[in-house]
C-alpha cells in the first residue's frame, strides 16, 4: 500500500494545461495513473484518440468534454467516462480556470490528428 503526499506530486505542462501527477508506477501503482489537471480560462486542448479508458471528475469550474461526436458541459461534481479508442477533446470555454481529476490505466497513449503519439509522463 502506498500513501502519496502532495509534496510527491510531479507537475507537467502541456497544451496549455497543468497536469499534477499523483498516482503512477513511481508512487507505487501497478495498473492505474491519476492526476489533477488545471485548465486555464478560454483554453482548449487538441483532439486526441486515447488507447485506454479514462474517467474524469470535475473538481472546480466548468469544462466541455467531447467524446467522439458527443459533447457535454460539465460542472463541479460531474463525471464522464471516455472508452478506449475514443476521440477526446477537453475545453474550458469560460472566463475562469477549472480543475478535474483524471484516472486511467498506466501506459496510456494519446494519438493526435497529425499521426503523432504522446505517452504522457503522468500516465507512465
From TrEMBL:
Entries under InterPro entries matching the protein: Cupin_2 (IPR013096), RmlC-like_jellyroll (IPR014710), RmlC_Cupin_sf (IPR011051)
Ranges of residues in domain Cupin type-2: 36-100
SUPFAM superfamilies found in the cross-reference section: RmlC-like cupins
A Pfam family the protein falls into: Cupin_2
Residues passing through the membrane, by range: none
Name listed for the protein in its UniProt record: Cupin
Organism: Streptomyces capoamus
Amino acid at each position: 500500500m502506498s500513501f502519496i503526499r502532495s509534496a510527491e506530486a510531479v507537475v507537467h505542462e502541456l497544451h496549455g494545461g497543468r497536469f499534477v501527477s499523483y498516482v503512477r508506477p513511481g508512487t507505487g501503482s501497478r495498473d492505474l495513473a491519476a492526476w489533477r489537471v488545471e485548465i486555464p480560462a478560454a483554453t482548449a486542448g487538441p483532439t486526441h484518440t486515447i488507447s485506454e479508458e479514462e474517467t474524469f471528475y470535475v473538481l472546480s469550474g466548468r469544462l466541455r468534454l467531447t467524446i467522439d461526436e458527443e459533447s457535454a458541459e460539465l460542472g463541479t461534481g460531474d463525471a464522464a467516462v471516455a472508452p478506449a479508442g475514443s476521440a477526446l477533446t477537453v475545453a474550458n470555454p469560460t472566463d475562469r480556470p477549472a480543475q478535474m481529476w483524471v484516472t486511467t490505466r498506466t501506459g496510456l497513449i494519446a494519438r493526435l490528428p497529425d499521426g503523432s503519439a504522446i505517452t504522457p509522463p503522468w500516465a507512465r
